[in-house]
Amino acid sequence: VADQGARSAQCHACNGVGPRRVAVTRFILALIRIIALSLSFCLSTLAAALFITFVLFLGSDPTWLENDPAVAVGAFGFTIGVWFEIAHSLFAVFFFLVLIAEFVRASSLLFNLIAGGGLALVYMVLTPYAFDLPYREEQIWIAALAAGFFGGLVHWILAGYRAGRWLGPARDGEITADQ
């Protein structure tokens, strides 16, 4: 009778599905989430690089692209260079923050915007200022911070709003970021 009660409690904990099936389902959901987060990382860093290109390289004036094809080629090259620089510099820090966000279930827009801005500040601190642009240093810092916010917004739209949902419903007494 005790064995039957333990078996019943075990099946109740996994909603009538065997524990092996639950583990496989969680593994598949985690794998899908890793793919979604990787895609989100690529696209959010690209969005930040495009923002930097628009603000710093083009001076917020897109007519440069129409008037001179050399500027369009230069803007493309600048965007790709900035994108790769941002992506390789912030890869580990991004996934550390995402790991925290997933297990705390921090899916709010505000969290993602602050995280994007924080990553931009980390990037500006860790990489030496070596741009040859006609802007003061504080203008470049502000543009980088705004690009981080924009990257955080893109990440939230693509994947951040579902942070932690693959873990299943929150248990009673579990602390989440939404509380």
Could you explain how this protein is built, in words?
The chain contains six helices and no strands. With 179 residues, it is an all-alpha fold. The radius of gyration is 22 Å and the shape is elongated.
Order of SSEs = HHHHHH
Note poorly predicted spans.
Answer: none
Strand content: under 5%
How many strand units? Answer: 0
N-to-C CA distance: 40 Å
* Structural class designation: mainly alpha
Give the biggest sheet. Answer: none
Helix content: over 70%
The 3D shape can be described as elongated
Helix count, per DSSP?
6
- Mean pLDDT across the residues is 81
Indicate the radius of gyration in whole angstroms: 22 Å
Short account of what is shown:
The chain is mainly α and 179 residues long. It has six helices and no strands.
Write the layout of secondary structure elements.
Elements: H1 2-13, H2 19-57, H3 63-67, H4 69-104, H5 109-126, H6 137-158
Helix pairs in contact: 2-4, 2-6, 4-5, 5-6
